[in-house]
Specification:
The complex is a heterodimer of chains A (157) and B (397). Chain A is of the alpha/beta class and 157 residues long. Chain A is built from six helices and seven strands, in the order αβββαβαβαβαβα. Chain A has a five-stranded parallel β-sheet, sandwiched between helices. In chain A, strands 1-2 form a two-stranded antiparallel sheet. In chain A, β5, α4 and β6 form a beta-alpha-beta unit. In chain A, α3 packs parallel to α4. The longest helix of chain A is centred in the first third of the chain and has 13 residues. Chain A is globular, with a radius of gyration of 14 Å. Chain B is an alpha+beta fold. Chain B is built from 13 helices and eleven strands. In chain B, the strands form two sheets. Chain B has a six-stranded mixed β-sheet with strand order 6-8-11-10-9-7. A five-stranded antiparallel β-sheet of chain B has the order 2-1-5-4-3. In chain B, β9 and β10 form a beta hairpin. The N terminus of chain B is likely disordered. Classes of the chains: A alpha/beta (157), B alpha+beta (397).
Chain lengths: 157, 397
């Protein structure tokens, strides 16, 4: 894998690039595809571990962070996800606060909000997320949300 | 439902049957009306007797089903149950991957709502489809109707089924209890093989347990909507309770994959059951806190009550950045209204949490002084207590 464009280069603020679990490489050759890189952030270790395993089994490359602060550090250290999954109710920094800081640092990767709140959709819409998943969720629901967010059509639901 | 009842409900039947002997017994029963009690397990014996009393036809190749319009109405009525059960049907199906099978959900009357399985099984015209009547009165002894009639887990191997059309299957079913403790459906798995796989049974128990928890979670949400004047804390606590379910659902998926791959999924299954127990306990406390039932004094173990409450409030404290220090106290029994006391403790805990502020600690102490049992929430740091909040109740001697 070489010269992969980062998320900022592949999409601007307003345009949602169409992506799938696999995406084309920068060579432009449709036959050469790489897996979507996900950064999953949740302070519940067992949940995070299971989510990582199930997404990996479905072909995603998954990094995890157990807090908003850790996610910010990872991004500053050069982790370049194609999509970020953020839990809302976390110690230290909530998912929405984390996304605000992520954006302030210049990362434009689409983000999906994960929450057990009954108004998760409204929270996600109000804070610039590209999609949302209501907890509890299956890995399939998570994957569908990732697909929708990368296509930019989660708000049609 | 009590824990003891849950154990009985999930208790497996005794040793698996001698298939040839059961087949012979089945012929004896349907041809001559003679039941060889030694060859047939007690649960199956009772089920055959009920099936015969309901005049079910043992020679029918398939079960009867509802008319299309009735099926559509049934599916609409039970949409929520089907939606909740869908991920668990998928997990059951994943665990049986590689063999002919169907994971099935029926309603509280044994009417089939949804099946997930391999294409060959689901497309078999004789195999039950949505709207099929699987109550014992309609389809004789089977994994769904018999589970409902017995009110617990059942397994039926081949000729233990009453109607001949089901003799090629091994079926297992567990009744699903709704928040009111009554059966709202049955979750089951049928495989075209005459034996019960232990791991498949474990997955079924876990899936049923997790599905019941989700039904209860739905009830908590409904309560939140119904009691609109409830303080925000109850919404946050509901989220924290549901978080455990979120973990449990993913771990069940992991376990199902492990089972399908022939590897040991017992760690994940144990975790699912542990989380389900924790969820039920926390949901019960939440339910007590919002209930408007009349108050009555009862003996209460203060340490138990505080411990359960602190488990429920763990995330609230973590999010607030407060470390709660609690050493389980000696037994202090008081006489009080459990709900009222829980509400007072919750209010004081939240007040103390606010007072404590980020990066601080709160000590929780249970004790007895004179004729009162006390719970104290003390905020402060290594330098000493800044402020304390105490609730007391009449000591029970």
């Amino acid at each position: 894998m070489k010269n992969l464009p980062n998320a900022e280069e592949r999409r601007d603020d307003e345009t949602h690039e169409v992506l799938d679990v696999t995406r084309r490489s920068s060579s432009g050759d449709p036959a050469v595809q790489t897996c979507l890189r996900i950064l999953a952030v949740d302070d519940e270790p067992d949940f995070l571990q299971s989510l990582q395993l199930l997404l990996q089994l479905n072909g995603f490359i998954v990094s995890t962070a157990n807090s908003g602060a850790m996610a910010l550090t990872m991004l500053n250290d050069g982790v370049q996800p194609d999509l970020i999954v953020l839990d809302q109710r976390m110690a230290g920094m909530t998912g929405t606060e984390t996304l605000k800081r992520i954006r302030a640092n210049g990362c434009r990767a689409p983000a999906v909000l994960l929450s057990a709140a009954h108004d998760v959709r409204e929270i996600a819409a109000a804070h610039g997320f590209h999609g949302w998943v209501s907890k509890p969720c299956s890995s399939q629901q998570m994957i569908e949300a990732i697909h929708r967010a990368t296509r930019g059509d989660d708000w049609d639901r | 439902m009590s824990a003891a009842a849950a154990e009985v409900r999930f208790h497996s039947l005794t040793a698996l049957p001698d298939i040839a002997a059961v087949k012979q017994a089945w012929h004896g029963f349907v041809d001559r009306g003679v039941l060889d009690a030694r060859a047939v397990r007690p649960t199956i014996r009772r089920a055959w007797e009920r099936s015969a009393a309901a005049r079910c036809n043992p020679l029918q190749p398939r079960a009867d089903y509802l008319a299309p319009a009735e099926t559509i109405a049934l599916l609409k009525r039970e949409e929520q149950l089907a939606q909740i059960a869908t991920p668990f049907l998928a997990a059951l199906s994943t665990a049986s991957k590689g063999e002919r099978h169907a994971a099935m959900l029926t309603d509280g009357n044994g009417r089939l709502l949804k099946s997930v399985g391999d294409e060959q099984t689901l497309e078999d015209p004789d195999f039950p489809r949505a709207g099929t009547l699987l109550s014992e009165a309609s389809a004789g002894a089977n994994g769904h109707g018999t589970a409902l009639a017995e009110g617990r887990y059942v397994e039926l191997v081949g000729p233990e089924h009453f109607i001949q059309g089901f003799h090629v299957f091994t079926c297992q079913g567990v009744p699903l209890l709704g928040p009111a403790g009554t059966p709202v459906g049955v979750l089951g798995i049928s495989v075209r093989r005459l034996e019960v796989a232990r791991r498949g049974r474990d997955i079924l128990f876990c899936a049923a347990e997790a599905a019941e928890c989700e039904l209860l979670a739905g009830w908590l949400s409904d309560q939140l909507v119904r009691l609109q004047q409830l303080p925000d804390i109850f919404g946050r606590l509901r989220q924290d309770i549901v978080q455990g379910l979120a973990t449990s659902r993913l771990q069940l998926e992991c376990a199902a994959r492990d089972v399908a791959a022939g590897t040991d999924g017992s760690n994940s299954l144990d975790a699912v059951q542990r989380l389900a127990k924790k969820f039920r306990r926390q949901a019960a406390i939440w339910r007590d806190l919002v209930a408007d039932a009349p108050a009555f004094a009862e003996p209460i173990s203060l340490a138990d009550l505080v411990e359960h409450l602190l488990q429920l409030l763990q995330t609230e404290a973590r999010v607030a950045g407060v470390e709660v220090i609690w050493s389980r106290a000696e037994k202090v029994a008081v006489l009080d209204d459990a709900r009222g006391l829980s509400q007072r403790l919750l209010a004081q805990f939240l007040e103390a949490l606010q007072e404590a502020g980020q990066m601080s600690t709160m000590r929780v102490l249970v004790g007895a002084a004179a004729d009162r049992g006390t719970v104290t929430f003390a905020t402060g740091d290594a330098g000493g207590t800044r402020r304390s909040y105490t609730t007391s109740s009449r000591l029970l001697r």
